[in-house]
Amino acid sequence: MNVSERLAQAGLKLPPPIDPLGSYRTVSISGSQLYVSGLGHFEDASQSSE
To answer: End-to-end distance of the chain based on CA atoms, in angstroms?
Structure first.
């Protein structure tokens, strides 16, 4: 079972990725590690103030 199937089985849905806010990558994958570039919480493609 892959990650997408496990999320669907748990009733979870990931939001679509946001457009980069600068000239950098928002996510980088190295082997089995996923690095996120310090983004805060987003809802409906806009940054939340929470």
So the answer is: 34
Closest CA to 46 of 14, 16, 11, 7: 16
- Distance, in Å, from the CA atom of 31 to the CA atom of 13, rounded to the nearest integer, reads 24
Q: What is the largest CA-CA distance in the chain?
A: 35
Domain assignment of residue 9, given as a range: 3-47
Residue with tokens 């987003």: 42
* Number of domains within the chain: 1
The whole-angstrom separation of Cα 3 and Cα 12 is 11
pLDDT tens, position by position, 8-47: 999 998 888 777 667 777 788 899 998 887 666 666 655 5
